[in-house]
C-alpha cells in the first residue's frame, strides 16, 4: 500500500512538472556606441507587483547571459553595471526559450554629458547650449540680433560682431543651412525673432572631422537658428522707409525691404537696402573676403595641406583704401537666397548679391617720423571719390549618392567695377619747422576685377568606423585690368629753398592674373579603439602674371604714348608644391589630441620678361602641428593648438618694379625674397555654468616668424623722400593674453562682465640700412553691465580703457597714450505702445607731446516710436548726433612713426520713418 502511494505521488509530481514547464532567457549585453561586449553586468528578473528579486546572473566576456528555469509570467528585466546606466524593460514569458538579442547599454559618462542642466529656458546637451527663444522677450517685430542680446553668454557689440562664451561667432545657420553665404550678420539682421523656436550655440567641427569622426581640434563657434514649424509654411517680411524732413537737396534717407518665404525644406529670402546714412549692409571689407584685392594675394598652406589666399601688404593697384565708418556713402544692396533639399539626398544653396556704393571723404593726416636725430613732420589732406559696383554669386550642390558616398560641388564668382578719383595735398617739415618737400597729386582709377573659383569634394565611408577616403579638387582665378592716370607736382627743398621740381603726367595700364589648381587626397584608418591615423597628399600649381606699363604724356601728339621703361615691367611666376602629411589622432570622451606633420616641397620659377632674367629656387619645409582638447566638465574645455605654416611672397613684392604713385613714398619689389615660416601656439580655456549664469574664459597666443618679410626703408632726411623694399628678417614675435569673467548678480537682477587684455610685439625694422627693432605694448580693460525688465526698461552700460606704449631702437623716446570709451544705452517703455530709446558715447583720447589737440567728443542719439494694429505698423522719429560732435579720428603707432588721421563723418540729422512688418495673412492672425 505504501509503495503504491509513493508511486502515485512521484507520478503526480512528474505530471505537474510537465504542465509547469520552465523556460530560458538569453541575450547579449553590448556598449551602445562601440558595439563591444560588456562583461560582468548583472542581469536580474524582478516580480512586477512588489519588485522582489526572482533570479539574476552576470554576463560573460562575450557579453552573453542565460537565465534558466524561469516560470511563465510577467517580469521586469533590469541590468546593472558600475560604468553603464541601468537598462529596464518589461517582458512576458510564455514559451520554452526567449531570445532578447542585443541589449545596448549607454555609458554613464555620456549620459552625464547629455544631462539637462536646466529644464526651462536653457538646456545643455553635450557641447550644445540651447535657448528657448519664446522665454526671452523682445520688442514686437524685433530681428534675431535683438534676441541674441538677451541671451546669457552671448554679446553683440555696436558693430554687429557676435561673441558666444567669449569666442567670436563665425557662422550663423538657419535650420542647419548657410543663409546668404557665410556672413553671420545677414541672418541675425534679416530674420524676425518671433520666427525662431530655438537658438543653438555649439563648436562646429571641420568638414573633415565631421566626415571621418576624428576630431582634429579645428572648430568654429556657430549659432543655429531653428525655426518654428508654422514659420516654415508661410512668409514674413518688412518694409521700412525713413527720410529727413524739412531739407532741400541733400537729405538723409533709408529704404529697406526684406522678405522670407518658407515651405518645408525650401527657403527663399530676399532683401533690398538703399540709403545714404551708412546703414548696415555689405561693406567694402567684404571684398577682401572674396579676393577682390588681387594684387597682393599671398598663398598660405595650413598643416593639413589646404591652400588659402590672404590679402597682405600695401595696395599698389591704385584703388584708394576705404573705411566705411568714415566719409559719406550711398548704398544699394540687394540679395537673394534659395535653399532646398530633396529626399534628404540632394541639397542646393544659391545666393546672388549685388552691391553699389558711391563714396566721398575728406581726410587729414599728421605724422611724425624719427630718423636718427631728425624728426620729419608731415601734413597731408586727401579728397576721395569712389563709385564701385559688385556682383557675387555663391552656389553649393551637395549629393548623397548612397549611404557611404557623397559629392559636393561649389562655385563662387565675384565681379567688381571701380571708378575713383583721389586728390592729395601735402608737405613735410623738419623739427625746426623748415620745409622739406611739397606735393600736389591727382590719381584717377578705372578698374575691373574678377574672382572665380570652383571645387568638388568626394567622400567615401568604409564599413569600418573611422575608415574614410576623400578627394578634393579646386580651381581659382583672380584678375585685374586697370587704367590709371597720375598727375602730380613734387617739390624738394634744401634748407627751406626750392631745389628741384618734378612734374608727373602718366597713364598706368595694369594687367594682373593669378591662378591656382590643386588636388588633395585624404585617407583615415583606425588603428585602435581611440587611435586613428590620417594620411594626406596635395599638389598645388600656382601661376601669375603682372604686366605694368607706364606711358608719359606727349605734348607733340597730345597722347600718352611714350613708354617709361624704368616704370614698366612684365613679370611671371610659377609655384609648384607637393605636400604629404601624416597625423596621429586620439579621441575619447573628454580628451582629444592629435600630432603630425606635413612636408612641403616647393619650387619657384620667376621670370622677368622685360629684363630677360629668370630666378629659380626650391625649398623643403617641415610643417609640424599638434592639437589638444580637454572637456573637464559640461560646457567647459581647454584647448591647446600649435601650427607651423609658410607664407609665400606676393607678386608685387617679388616684381622688381618701382611704384611712383606717391613720389615721396615709393616702393620697389625684390625678386630675391624667400618665403617666411611662422610658429604659432594658442591656449584657450572657457567654462560656462548655466545654473549660476557665470562664465570664465581666457586665451594666450604667441607667434614667432623666421624670414619675416618687412619693408626696409631708405629715408633722405633732407628731402624726406622714402624708398621701401621688401626684405627677409629674423627676430619678429608677438603675444597676447585675454581674460573674461561674467556673472549674474541675482539680488540686483544685473548682468556684469569684466574683460582685461594684454598684448606685446617686437618687430625688426630697417632704416637707412641700419637694423633695429620696434616694441609695442597694448593693455586694456572692458566692463559691461546690463539690466532689463520686460516692457519697462532696458539699460546697458559699458566702459573700455586702453593704454598704448611704443618704443624703437632709433631713439630713446617712448611714445605712449591712452584712450577711453564710455557707452550708455537705455530704452524706456510707457503707455504700452510707446518706447523711447537713447544711446550715449563719451570718447576720450589722451593728449600727448606730439598731439596737443583735445580729442574728447560725445555722441548722443535718440529714437521715439509708437506701434499700431497689434504691432504690425510702427511710426518713429529719430535724431543722430544730437550734440553735433561726431568726428572720425584714429591714432596709430608703427615702427618709428606715430600718426593721427581725421576723416569726415555724418553729423547731426533727424529722420521720420514708418515700418510695416507683415507675415502670413498680413499679420492679422494671432
What does the model show?
Pfam families: OMP_b-brl_3. There is one protein chain. This protein is mainly beta. Among the domains are: 24-111, Immunoglobulin-like (Sandwich), CATH 2.60.40.1120; 116-272, Ferric Hydroxamate Uptake Protein, Chain A, domain 1, CATH 2.170.130. Helices cover 6% and strands 65% of the residues. It has seven helices and 51 strands. It has a 26-stranded antiparallel beta barrel. A six-stranded mixed beta sheet has the order 8-9-15-16-13-14. Strands 3-2-5-6 form a four-stranded antiparallel beta sheet. It is globular and about 120 Å long. It starts with a helix and ends in a 7-residue tail after the last strand. The relative contact order is 0.08.
List the helices and strands and how they pair.
Elements: H1 2-19, E1 23-31, E2 42-46, E3 53-58, E4 64-70, E5 73-81, E6 84-93, E7 97-105, H2 108-113, E8 122-125, E9 128-132, H3 144-148, E10 154-156, E11 162-164, E12 167-168, E13 171-174, E14 177-178, H4 184-190, E15 196-205, H5 207-212, E16 219-227, E17 235-243, E18 253-263, E19 266-275, H6 285-289, E20 297-301, E21 307-311, E22 328-342, E23 346-371, E24 374-400, E25 405-430, E26 435-461, E27 468-494, E28 497-526, E29 531-554, E30 559-563, E31 569-587, E32 591-608, E33 613-633, E34 636-647, H7 651-654, E35 658-659, E36 665-668, E37 676-689, E38 694-706, E39 708-715, E40 722-729, E41 732-745, E42 750-767, E43 770-789, E44 793-808, E45 814-830, E46 834-845, E47 857-868, E48 873-880, E49 888-894, E50 897-903, E51 909-919
Parallel strand pairs: 1-7, 13-16, 36-40
Antiparallel strand pairs: 1-4, 2-3, 2-5, 5-6, 8-9, 9-15, 10-11, 11-12, 13-14, 15-16, 17-18, 17-51, 18-19, 19-22, 20-21, 20-34, 22-23, 23-24, 23-50, 24-25, 25-26, 26-27, 27-28, 28-29, 29-30, 29-31, 31-32, 32-33, 33-34, 34-37, 35-36, 37-38, 38-41, 39-40, 41-42, 42-43, 43-44, 44-45, 45-46, 46-47, ...
